[in-house]
Predict the structure.
Amino acid sequence: MGSLFRFLFEYRLFFLFVLCEVFSFWMIITKNTRQKSAWLTSSNNFAASAMEMSDAVTGFFGLYQENEKLAGENARLNTLLTLSKQKIDKMEMDSTKTPSMLEQYNFIVAKVINNSVSKPNNYITLNKGSLEGIKPGMGIISPQGVVGRVMVCSEHFSTATSLLHSKMLISAEISRIHASGSLKWGGNDPNSANLEFVARHLKPKVGDTIRTSEFSNILPEGIHVGVIRKISLKDDATFYNIDVDLATDFSTLNFVYVIENKLQAEKDSLQLKTTGELE
Amino acid sequence: MISRNVFQLIWKILVYIGVYVFIGHRLNAFNLALCFSYTGAILLLPISTNPVRVLLFAFAVGFGIDIFHSSPGIHTAACLLMAFMRSSFLNWMVPAGGYEDYMTISIPSMGMKWFLPFSLGLLFMHSFLYFIIDYASLAQFGMVLLKASFSSVFTLLGIVLTQLALEPPKRGD
């Protein structure tokens, strides 16, 4: 301790100098606008670059999961590709469908930039809008399954109704027995939904896969929705109560595909014509 | 006798600061050189003054000038650097035989060879730090160097003239 004091005393001039300089620089930075702004700018730049660096590091640690997801999606796409190849071969054989029907759907990749799962009605914001060809009413899927429907578009952004929304209904079917119904979110658990209007004469099983049906206006047929977790049937009920485990993990949504149905207008106008004539 | 010296010293300090306040701060040669003649009060303190006191004195002078210019800290920081380096300079530049009591920091007493590097070096440090802080960036480093060099020469000119007026060399010396 004594030697410390001796050291401090020996260099008292230097320490006093440093102390006074620190004080005067503190005055310079706090009291002079120009120097203050220079200081703030440089420290902000420093903070920004530090944040960028930490983001790069955390991004690096997330790469493993991202990689896993991509590999999974690759596998899924490969299966799809083979399946559609088979379909095309079949179609070429019976040649009942036109080429425009083969290219009925167009996929636009978008990134989810805002998302919620905990509210009674949840919405998703995407980083692409009308300039990239997104229009209200288009369906959205993720690599895992169904996500929702585009609601409003600006030039560069879109908001979409998530499947986790009280007004969102999706035509879905139990693919094993081709029993269609409507998928609706229960309002609590972001991982499960209910499949409604499955008639009691059908025989669904726990573990059956649910996919979008061909009645769906916004989504192509056969998109994965989820798996049946629980089935119950009251004695006086016409329809089953089916709980579905959703395939999409809404809390980790990142990249999604917005689906453009090129034949949507044609289908809509035809349907409108029929209703118009009936009225 | 001692009190007479003290009064003389205070009078000189007041003159250096007064010259700056009334004349020096208005001088701006070609937008390149400023005349920080108040630094004379620190530069020309008696050689034997305690370095800690020099530092505290420089702080007070710089702070006062800062209040006068409403630029808190800028002149203070520059003056502190100068005062700190002054004691080191005095140690490095001990003339053969050491300092004597009769020596003062002036051209007649110390000679050009000693006085010029001593004062120009310290004044350059002062004006360099001043302009670096004033510009608040390293983008115009060349301009800072240029202004600091010209200002230290210009300031030295002001200080020497004030000194000549205060202590006119005796005729026949």
